[in-house]
Amino acid sequence: MENNNTNFRRFFGASLTILGVVVVLFALIAFLSDGKPVLGMSISKAEAAAPFIVGMIFLVTGVNLVRES
């Protein structure tokens, strides 16, 4: 049972890490796009901070889950 829990934590941590990297990259591209639409969404520089913060939370949480399992 312990092995299943460890495998799930590693899988979930890896998924969160990948999602965090994707969201952080999206936020950085949106920040640098200078008001042009990114993936069909028009995001200003101030609005790009929210996905960056959420992506960093996902990234840090995922790394910690993988590291501790």
UniProtKB/TrEMBL annotation:
Enumerate the UniProt keywords alphabetically.
Answer: Membrane, Transmembrane, Transmembrane helix
Name the residues that span the membrane. Answer: 12-33, 48-66
What is the recorded name of this protein? DUF3098 domain-containing protein
Q: Per the UniProt entry, what species is this protein from, by scientific name?
A: Spirosoma telluris
Tell me the lineage of the source organism.
Answer: Bacteria, Pseudomonadati, Bacteroidota, Cytophagia, Cytophagales
